[in-house]
Specification:
Helix Hairpins; SH3 type barrels; 4 domains; 5-stranded antiparallel β-sheet; two-stranded antiparallel sheet; 9 strands
Length: 374
């Protein structure tokens, strides 16, 4: 009980210290001096950067419209630069002003301007770096987490805030998790997932360019690399922030049993997908018929296969159905190729083409009868 009271008193003292620091700074701005002058300079630089943001943004857009042959990633980069032109201009002006004032007056009289320039540069770099996070929700979490941490770090209050957040915790026996731990885990896992995605994308591109690997094995290799990298990123992120997973062994075991019963079909489709990729019975590009569905396999996913029919409809067939049901694969294994065509009976314009096609084939299939062409 006394320990909880002491922890509560420390948190209150930390909050008081965090509150008094900005209040004392605000009071100091009411007295004429270099702090006030620096804040006025910073506000002027912000106004100037805002005006140049709109002017230079229009100039840059007009310049890009006159260019041709740009790649998609280049256009996306230009869009991101246009959105952050104000921050770019402010960073340049702040650092330029700081460099001039360092040489013409006392260094302490330009401290706040240099701090503002440092914060602007860090926010700018974080905003560009987090664009590699594909998931929008996760990207926002990582961006805001890094922005807040960078701001607190350069304001020299990161340790006090970290101590306060670490005090907001939940304890279950030997297991303890705090708000600081959760925030650190989310940010770190987001960064590691981004690195894993970049590595998996590069590896997948290399695998797909290898013509010696069959399409089915390429899909299996890419999925295996992705699962391995994302799994490593998750567990490394959890362990690096100090979360002991052994304390959750019983809870995760019970959850696993429940999920096992609830996700039987999902697991069955995952295992069936791996079997299909290993035995190479079907692969992307094959023409198959399953029940009333007839078309070619567009992609083989972890849970289902995408089959596109002649009329453009896409069917998502669970992998389990491809294992347990009879599937006809029209892929040719004979030396001479097979020609499969669909004939509209009442279309006179196609008669000559149909006759030429039939005469060039070995067998002609009509209805339920099979006879030599001729």
């Amino acid at each position: 009980m006394e320990q909880h009271q002491e922890t509560g008193m420390n948190m209150i003292q930390t909050l008081e210290g965090l509150w008094m620091s900005p209040m004392n700074f605000a009071v100091s701005l009411t007295v004429p001096g270099w702090r006030l002058y620096q804040m006025l300079i910073i506000l002027g630089l912000i106004a100037l950067a805002y005006c140049l943001h709109h002017v230079s943004g229009k100039v840059l857009q007009n310049w890009v419209r006159g260019r041709e042959g740009w790649k998609t990633w280049q256009l996306r980069m230009i869009v991101q630069v246009c959105k952050r032109l104000g921050l770019i201009w402010f960073s340049a002006f702040a650092w330029g002003t700081w460099a001039v004032m360092q040489n013409v007056t006392w260094p302490s009289r330009s401290y706040l301007i240099g701090l503002a320039g440092t914060l602007a540069i860090s926010w700018l770099l974080i905003s560009f770096a987090t664009r590699f996070v594909r998931n929008k929700f996760l990207r926002r979490l990582v961006s805001w987490g890094l922005w807040i941490y960078a701001t607190l770090y350069y304001l020299n209050v990161s340790d006090a805030v970290a101590g306060f957040l670490d005090g907001l915790s939940i304890e279950l026996g030997d297991f303890r998790v705090s708000v600081l731990t959760l925030i650190s885990a989310v940010v770190l896992i987001g960064v590691l997932f981004t690195v894993a995605r970049l590595v998996s994308t590069t590896t997948a591109t290399t695998i797909r360019r290898n013509e010696k690997i069959s399409p089915s094995m390429q899909v299996l290799a890419v999925k295996g690399v992705q699962i391995f990298l994302y799994g490593i990123a998750f567990f490394v992120g959890i362990n690096s922030v100090g979360i002991d997973l052994s304390g959750l062994a019983i809870l995760t075991g019970a959850i696993g049993v429940g999920l096992g019963f609830g996700l039987q079909k999902v697991i069955s489709n995952l295992v069936s997908g791996v079997i299909i990729l290993l035995d190479k019975s079907i692969k992307p590009g094959d023409v198959i018929s399953l029940g009333e569905t007839f078309g070619w396999i567009q992609t083989l996913g972890a849970r289902y296969a995408s089959v596109v029919t002649r009329d453009g409809k896409e069917y998502l067939i669970p992998n389990e159905d491809l294992i347990t049901n009879q599937v006809v694969n029209w892929r040719s294994t004979r030396p001479q190729p097979w020609t499969v065509c669909w004939i509209t009976p009442n279309d006179p314009s196609a008669t000559s083409w149909v006759l030429a096609t039939v005469r060039s084939t070995t067998y002609c299939v009509s209805g339920s009868k099979t006879r030599p062409a001729g």
